[in-house]
Amino acid sequence: MRSLVYYVASTLDGFIAAPDGSYDFFPLEPDVAAHLAGAWPQTLPTAAHPAFGIDRPTGRFDAVVMGRGTYEPALRVGITNPYAHLAQYVFSRTLPPADYPDVTVVADDPVGYLRDLKSRPGGDIWLCGGGQLAGLLLPEVDELVVKLHPIVAGEGVPLAARRFDPARFTLVDTRPFDSGLVMLHYRRS
After folding, report:
1. Of 94, 116, 88, 119, which Cα lies nearest the Cα of 107?
2. Is the pLDDT of residue 56 over 90?
3. What region does 103 belong to: left with phi over 0, alpha with psi -120 to 50, or beta?
């Protein structure tokens, strides 16, 4: 069975974006960029591959799932296919699927859809964001990889917006960077 991996940047106080959904306050330091290009190239937008020297991204993912808010920044700059190297699923009840043929727009129940997607053959699935979708899908998340930035935001989009229901994960790896970011890798306990 495929794994669902929530791979996301976060502030120290647990926010993945500003209140308006923007995330440009997260710096991409050279030491982190080099690591991402080598170890996580599939998580970089297709348009950024040439800048990182990526010809053909390889890795564990063959699909990405995201909420409408995560997809929106690409749409604002005219990109309807941000991760063209992956099968892309956007959960939205407002986007007309016919208007976005480069992605699969899903208006169905995210949990049921993800369970079905995980049961199909293929590589692992990257949960790109956002906080509302992550909150709904947390019971389906097999791994959590957090790029923890040394930033306190105060408010914003939470890592996983959900009712109080603690979910336990086990730390399997840490990687600190000179720039202050720490990459934390967890598996579901």
Report:
1. 94
2. no
3. beta
Domain assignment of residue 166, yes or no:
no
DSSP code for 102: T
The total of structural domains in the chain comes to 1
What gap in Å lies between CA 170 and CA 184, rounded to an integer? 10
Give the C-alpha separation, 139 to 34, whole Å: 32
CATH number at residue 88: 3.40.430.10
Full DSSP string of 1-26: -PPEEEEEEE-TTSEEE-TTS--TTS
| Position 170 in a domain | no
Q: Which residues pair with 99 in a beta bridge?
A: none
In a domain, 34, yes or no: yes
* Tens-place pLDDT, residues 114-144: 999 999 999 999 999 889 999 999 999 999 9
Q: Which domain holds residue 141?
A: 4-158+184-188
For 145, the 3-state DSSP assignment is strand
Amino acid in the structure at residue 183:
M
Is 3 a residue whose pLDDT tops 90? Answer: yes
The length of the chain, given as a count of residues: 189
Indicate whether 120 belongs to any domain: yes
Identify whether the C-beta of residue 159 lies closer than 8 Å to the C-beta of residue 131.
yes
Measured distance CA(180)–CA(81) in Å, rounded: 32
